[in-house]
């Protein structure tokens, strides 16, 4: 049944909401995304850079974005303008030397303020398509741009990492460019985050230049073309959306996560059944995110954004701003592999603004920033604190155990099966508080497991030795030279580390 939630947006689709028995805010969100998909095809064909100036493309993308925001969230969409305006004022009126720090504090602080008020305006613990969701993506864009401007205007070229050189912004964006980047119709509702340079290249029509048409490091002249079609990839992603939505509506309805703390369920089922049920319920929950992020990716591709060169067979790749790799998630054999393929653009944001720049304990700082960014529900913090312990344990096991299983394919297969099972259980165990949100239910779940995974992870992290990040970088300097379109190739190498 549809859950009764407050909806601050348009009530035009209320009859449809009643017919299909889904909350109005979710109906508004899906309909707006479908409208954005159709508009994206029109934008690519009729406002192509060869036919239209960047100014017109910026204006149209921004106005359409604000229209969708108003339809979904009503006047709460003004928070998008307030947040963007405050940050732009900081960029203009403060020195470049510390501008990125002030922008980070102001933008994240305003997001946290809205999240606190949202808890009191909406029902506590109620999932809804509220206005703070888009603000989370805008926060990523604002802070990323601030750091990119700082790198481009303050740092010397030799002091930048390869990916930072690519991302560095060499001039202050105009107000129109800034608003278009933050609030365009392709990403206003669900993202994903992208770099400012990539977005401007898309608007100006430079995203298909030869530097992006590389296959195995060389320009493939045989398949080179100026404007590859995203039609095939968009259709594939829409099919993925449909399947994900069906799986979520059918399975998760029958296997809700909150049943894992039901007294009757725990008393009437042995522990291994509880473990199996937990895995199935989490497996059925993920398609909701697959649907939202894959549809957002398809919208950007339909507009011509997201091109990432060519495959070896000459077919175009449209994964430049993709937010997930489903098969890599479901068959992940390590905690890091799961995180690297889940919400990819957010992981890149955390890496660029926190992990690479934090001088002390970057892993803990990154998890803490992720928790603050998600919101103020206690379950988020329990999840990310647990994530720190699981990450440390997984790293320790990999460094000390994996090499003993690489002698033969059979041993490697055994290792992969064991680590896949361990990773899936660890992920499910870790994210339960993220779903339950409140402290009481989360602690009830962990106590029903006697905090076994917490204790095992802490023990492994303390007993098994692991090289520090700085020492590791000194011993493997070649990895710092990996080439850098926006982190794609570099990340693939670093994921194996």
From TrEMBL:
Bilayer disposition of the protein: Multi-pass membrane protein
Protein keywords: Acyltransferase, Endoplasmic reticulum, Membrane, Transferase, Transmembrane, Transmembrane helix
Signal peptide as annotated in the record: none
Pfam families the UniProt entry points to: MBOAT
Compartment annotation: Endoplasmic reticulum membrane
Region (Disordered): 474-497
Main location: endoplasmic reticulum
Record's compositionally biased regions (Polar residues): 479-497
Single GO MF descriptor: acyltransferase activity
Transmembrane segments: 27-47, 59-82, 102-121, 234-254, 266-285, 380-397, 417-439, 445-464
A GO biological process held by the record: lipid modification
InterPro entries from the UniProt entry: LPLAT_7/PORCN-like, MBOAT_fam
Any single GO CC term annotated in Swiss-Prot or TrEMBL for this entry: endoplasmic reticulum membrane
Protein name in UniProt: Membrane bound O-acyltransferase domain containing 2a
Originating species: Phoxinus phoxinus (Eurasian minnow)
């Amino acid at each position: 049944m549809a859950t009764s939630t407050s909806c601050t947006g348009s009530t035009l689709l209320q009859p449809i909401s009643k017919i299909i028995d889904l909350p109005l805010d979710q109906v508004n969100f899906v309909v707006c995304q479908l409208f954005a998909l159709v508009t994206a095809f029109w934008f690519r064909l009729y406002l192509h850079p060869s036919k239209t100036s960047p100014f017109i493309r910026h204006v149209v993308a921004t106005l359409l974005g604000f229209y969708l925001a108003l339809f979904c969230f009503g006047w709460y969409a003004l928070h998008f303008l307030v947040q963007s305006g405050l940050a732009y004022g900081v960029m203009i009126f403060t020195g470049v030397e510390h501008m990125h720090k002030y922008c980070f504090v102001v933008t994240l602080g305003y997001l946290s303020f809205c999240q606190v008020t949202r808890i009191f305006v909406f029902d506590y613990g109620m999932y809804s398509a509220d206005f703070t969701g888009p603000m989370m993506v805008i926060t990523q864009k604002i802070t990323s741009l601030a750091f990119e401007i700082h790198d481009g205007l303050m740092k010397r070229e030799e002091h930048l990492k390869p990916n930072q050189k690519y991302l560095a912004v060499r001039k202050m964006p105009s107000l129109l460019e800034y608003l278009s980047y933050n609030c365009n119709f392709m990403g206003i509702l669900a993202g994903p985050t992208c770099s400012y340079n990539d977005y401007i290249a898309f608007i100006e029509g430079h995203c298909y230049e030869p530097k992006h048409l590389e296959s195995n490091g060389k320009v493939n002249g045989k398949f080179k073309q100026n404007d590859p079609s995203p039609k095939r990839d968009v259709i594939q992603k829409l099919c993925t959306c449909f399947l994900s939505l069906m799986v979520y509506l059918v399975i998760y309805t029958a296997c809700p996560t909150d049943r894992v703390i039901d007294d009757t369920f725990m008393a009437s089922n042995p522990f291994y059944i509880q473990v199996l049920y937990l895995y199935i319920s989490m497996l059925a929950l993920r398609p909701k995110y697959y649907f939202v992020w894959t549809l957002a990716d398809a919208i950007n591709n339909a507009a011509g954004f997201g091109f990432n060169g060519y495959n070896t067979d000459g077919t175009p790749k449209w994964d430049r701003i993709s937010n997930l790799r489903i098969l890599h998630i479901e068959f992940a054999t390590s905690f890091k592999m799961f995180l690297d393929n889940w919400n990819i653009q957010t992981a890149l944001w955390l890496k660029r603004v926190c992990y690479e720049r934090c001088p002390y304990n970057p892993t803990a700082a990154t998890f803490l920033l992720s928790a603050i960014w998600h919101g103020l529900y206690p379950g988020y913090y329990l999840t990310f604190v647990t994530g720190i312990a699981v990450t440390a344990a997984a790293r320790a096991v990999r460094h000390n155990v994996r090499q003993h299983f690489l002698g033969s394919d059979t041993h490697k297969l055994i290792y992969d099966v064991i680590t896949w099972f361990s990773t899936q259980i660890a992920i499910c165990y870790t994210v339960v508080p993220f779903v339950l949100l409140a402290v009481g239910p989360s602690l009830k779940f962990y106590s029903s497991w006697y905090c076994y995974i917490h204790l095992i992870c802490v023990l492994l992290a303390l007993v098994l030795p692991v090289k520090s990040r700085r020492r590791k970088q000194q011993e493997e300097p070649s990895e710092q030279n990996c080439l850098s379109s926006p982190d794609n190739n570099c990340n693939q190498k670093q994921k194996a580390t």
